[in-house]
Amino acid sequence: MAITGGVATGKSAVVAQLTQIWGEHAASFSADAAVHELLTRPDIKTKIGEVFGSSVFDEAGAIDRSQLRQVVFRTPPLRRDLEAILHPEVFVAGQQAHLLAKKSDRSLFVYEIPLLYEVDSKHQRDLDLVVASSEDVQRSRMAERRGLDPETIENLLRSQMPLSVKLERADVVIWNDGTETELEEQVHVLSSLIHHRLESLPR
Hints:
The chain is an alpha/beta fold.
């Protein structure tokens, strides 16, 4: 299955809770974590340097993610250039993680891909879950938990496909405006749904 949604809607929390319920029978892949790793790879850093120049690197030679983000917000064509560098690599990493999960006989494999629909992901899955919340809650979380300024918050919100569009494409929706307990209750319902689907498959 794939889990997506808007920025700061709680996607990672859902993945963590779901994989905790399933324990050793579950495996997951985070596109964001894959990007973090890619940005440390010498070959990827070289490609980014060729497109963006030295301004997106810090004094130690590491990519300054905040500066890179600001550049792509200001210049949409450069964002497409960055995606062309990163997205094929992320797809390959996801495929490898899925293959490893199959070899390990995991019953549940979860892709966590924030831009699942924006990039028209070709990952094979049998269920799409969208984790959603109101924009006011998204803004509050980004400010309080990530310390982001209002301009960056608005840029992040506008950079993704509207949640209303994602909701139309979802098989299942979790609405995460409430408490952690309310979120846990929804994840347990989701887990039961997955169990039922798996039990109904031919053996």
